[in-house]
Specification:
The chain is an alpha/beta fold. It has helices at about 20-25, 40-55, 65-70, 80-90, 110-120, 140-150, 170-185, 205-215, 250-270; strands at about 5-10, 30-35, 55-60, 95-100, 125-130, 155, 160, 165, 190-195, 220-225, 275-280, 285-290, 295-300, 305-310, 315, 320-325, 330, 335-340. Helix 4 packs across helix 5 and helix 6 packs parallel to helix 7 (about 170-185). The chain starts with a strand and ends with a strand. The relative contact order is 0.11.
Length: about 350
């Protein structure tokens, strides 16, 4: 599998340093989605240079010219978007342009113009979708976006760990976006909740792994952590510390995500072949990869499960990078998964 591991909301301008970008790379991350007031050509080019030095890619999501163009329907976006791409394409770290985050259905035609212009300029075109609780009928919303906009990936966000429980709509959105990505022949990306904010609680280590593993069971090829740096209190959504707190200090979840990426996600993704389908039975998800591989995931983040899968003889060990003999009975910790064949 060609997996992308991204972070949204990178260090702010005064913390945009070589050391900070090495810190991102050391967590097993390969793509930075800009924001956090990296909002002009000068700071973005500086960011691209630092990311290049650290071996990271950058998806430019905070160039103010793009934001203005996407909202001014009377201006042809192609000439200026070509200039935006030209301003950044000389950096090896440049991965593309985000046209709009969470567009409403009435904005799809304008986003489609932007996507076409960025693609014509030779760059990756991205726009991330709303969750279903913020739209009308979700199947229609996602299907029309895929049909009209045709971005290079189909991406969405839905943060399931609520202050008063679990968001039961999470799996429905995961299924809907994946199915429309399959129909359109597009990769599917999703966001992982890393922090507490208004109406949401801080996820545990098992809940972070659960988000990643349920996505892999459904064949998602892009994992985007929301957020990396803690958003400023002035933004008003009651953000608590993320992977890096507001003072620049790594939280416990930075280490959890680093170990998850390096010790599990990267090794297992390198083994996965082409995703074909998924079974969701009770407390277990089974993602089918190729003819022989099964990605078996605990669909519960709050307790272990035991599952019997006939026909399996080997289980992948990420520490050694090899397969080891196993029987048909698997015990999965909360949120955990195994790759078997």
């Amino acid at each position: 599998m060609n997996l992308t591991i991204a972070v949204f909301w990178p260090p702010p301008p005064h913390e945009t340093t070589a050391a900070r970008y090495r810190q991102i790379a050391e967590a097993g991350i390969d793509l930075v989605i800009t924001g956090n007031y990296l909002a002009d050509r000068i700071i973005l080019r500086h960011t691209l240079a630092l990311a290049e030095e650290a071996g990271l890619g950058v998806l430019v999501a905070s160039d103010p010219r793009v934001d203005v163009l996407m909202r001014d329907l009377d201006v042809d976006p192609a000439p200026l978007l070509a200039q935006v791409v030209d301003d950044y394409r000389t950096f090896r770290s440049f991965r593309g342009v985000s046209l709009m985050d969470e567009p409403e259905a009435g904005q799809f035609a304008r986003v489609a113009e932007g996507v076409a212009a960025v693609r014509a300029a030779g760059a990756f075109a991205y726009s991330n979708l709303l969750p279903s609780h913020a739209t009308g009928p979700y199947d229609t919303y996602v299907g029309e976006f895929a049909r009209l906009v045709r971005p290079d990936v189909l991406s969405f966000d839905r943060y399931p760990f609520l202050a008063d429980g679990f968001d039961e709509g999470y799996f429905g959105d995961l299924v809907t976006v994946r199915e429309h990505a399959r129909r359109a022949g597009l990769p599917a990306w999703m966001h992982v909740q890393t922090l507490a904010y208004d109406g949401h609680r801080e996820p545990s280590a098992a809940e972070l792994a659960w988000q990643v593993n349920t996505a892999l069971a459904y064949g998602y090829t892009g994992i985007q952590y929301f957020t990396y740096w803690t958003p400023d209190p002035a933004r008003g959504e009651g953000f608590h510390p993320a992977l890096i707190d507001g003072d620049g200090v790594p939280t416990e979840r930075y280490g959890i995500v680093r170990d998850l990426n390096l010790g599990w996600l990267r090794p297992v993704a390198a083994e996965l072949t082409e995703w074909t389908s998924v079974e969701h039975t009770g407390d277990v998800l089974v993602g089918h990869y190729g003819e022989r591989q099964r990605f078996v995931c605990n669909a519960r983040f709050d307790r272990p499960v035991e599952v019997t899968i006939d026909g399996i003889t080997e289980s992948f060990d990420p520490a050694s990078g090899s397969y080891q003999a196993c029987g048909p009975v698997l015990t999965l910790a909360p949120g955990a998964a195994r790759l078997v064949r």
